[in-house]
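Chapter review: from sequence to fold.
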Amino acid sequence: MCSVVLVLWLVPAIAAGTAVRVATYNILNFPQALGSERLDELRTVMSFIEPDIVLVQEMQSQDGVQLFLDSVMRHVDPSFAGAPFNDGPDTDNALFYRSDRVNYLAAQYLATPNRDIAEYRVLLSESYSELYLFSIHFKASEGITNETIRLQEATILRNRLNALPPGRNFIVAGDFNIYYSDEPAYQKLTDSLENASGRLIDPLHMEGYWHDNSAFAVTHTQSTRVEQLPDGVAGGGLDDRFDMVLCSATVLDNSGLYMVGDSYKICGNDGAHFNLSINYGYNSAVPGQVAEALYWASDHLPVYIDLDSEPPSTIEEPVVKVWPNPMQDRAEVVLPGHDDFVKARVCMTNILGQRVYDSEIYDPVGFRLDRSDLPVGVYFLHVAIETRYSIHEYLTRVAVVK
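The token string follows.
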């Protein structure tokens, strides 16, 4: 049996059944920052993602909500509706949802020393699952003063999460403006000691200093452009992990409403655009027109996950998984499970078909792939798993970046 994975970009198809796609997007001071001139690009991005629920940050007015709803979301699907706008300090949050799949129940807003935190409660129609959605935009910029304000915001949010009845499904998404995993605000949200039921879990589990660190290039969401554009926001390239989706434990335990495995996506991030504009050269994560739209639509990349309440109706065909991919110095290769495993024969070839790596693996789980002196480029990992009775062959594409 041969399983081939040759994906030039990850087209975001939602699994069949009750799966619901939840996206978060900082849309850049909308509509005052040339919002009407960015509508085509925003439509392109949203049409590519095909969300069912969208949490938006940097919304400025009810007029902006209506413009985004009519000119962007209803081009994706005419059933989209929007929650009423709440005018708090500075810019605000907004919620858009497909009314044929999502019932809007209620909203409230948590006041903080900076901006309001929006709390939306919805009911997913097909699974009849209730979901709390929190949209946030924490205080920006580095420095102890700004970190202290972010901690105050995170504390208000965590207190609210702790107060939710046990077992509730909740997601916190938006622009966290957090620079590293040890920052107090992030630790406050993810701490399991004070009240485990209110704890948030980061699906990526990538701890470290994210800011301007190429080791975390696959997690970065801002900025989509190096240059400063007429919309007034500074560029600098992709080097910060500001935008995230954090989940309650109930969303990650694969029972009831749960996040579909490997569905966490940062739209347009292929790991190869560290400190570059998202449309620079070739982007292997999205088609060229989507990369171009992401560049102009906002200085942030959208992030999305899929939620479901039913197991897949068909068994997924086994594949060799490589993480991270694209890789820089090394990657972990996970082999599909086979009874009576004997060994795996592994070789890697470049685009000319020349062999650049060759090994035999005796661990049925997988192995670490070191870059060694491989130049930047696209390679093909050939794996032949030998069992007592047969041989199973796989081919997986691997990108090596700086």
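Two observations follow directly from the output. The first helix runs from residue 39 to 49. Residues 1-16 have pLDDT under 50 and may be disordered.
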